[in-house]
Amino acid sequence: MDKRHFLFYLQSYKTWLERLDYAQATCYSYVRSVGYFMNWLGSEGRLLTQLEPSDMNDYTNWLEQRGNQKRGGGLDIKTIYGYLDALYNFSEYLFNYE
Predict the structure, then answer these.
(1) CB within 10 Å: which end of the chain, N or C, has fewer?
(2) How far apart are CA 14 and CA 62, in angstroms?
(3) Average pLDDT over residues 64-77
(4) DSSP letter string over 19-39?
(5) Is residue 42 pLDDT above 60, yes or no?
(6) 16, 17, 20, 60, 73 from 9: Cα distances, Å
(7) Structure-model confidence comparison of residues 4 and 42, the more confident one
(8) C-alpha–C-alpha distance, residues 19 and 22, integer Å
(9) Quick one: pLDDT at residue 2?
């Protein structure tokens, strides 16, 4: 994904969250989580416009296998759910944005 396109979506998403009065910490967390997903998507050679349901399964599997970068070991299931919750919210933004 073109970096400008990537940044546009993240900034626009953050603005949308702020307009809906999400807490600042939630905005930060959701935007960060969606950024991780977009990075993963790009590393897979995929575009946001090419998403398929199987991509979510692949991303979830990747999260489950990814190591915890702060303390070692795997990611906690609550952390994984947090990433997926942010993506669900991001999908709401995309449907409302278009």
Answers:
(1) C
(2) 25
(3) 74
(4) HTT--HHHHHHHHHHHHHHHH
(5) yes
(6) 10, 12, 17, 21, 31
(7) 42
(8) 8
(9) 60
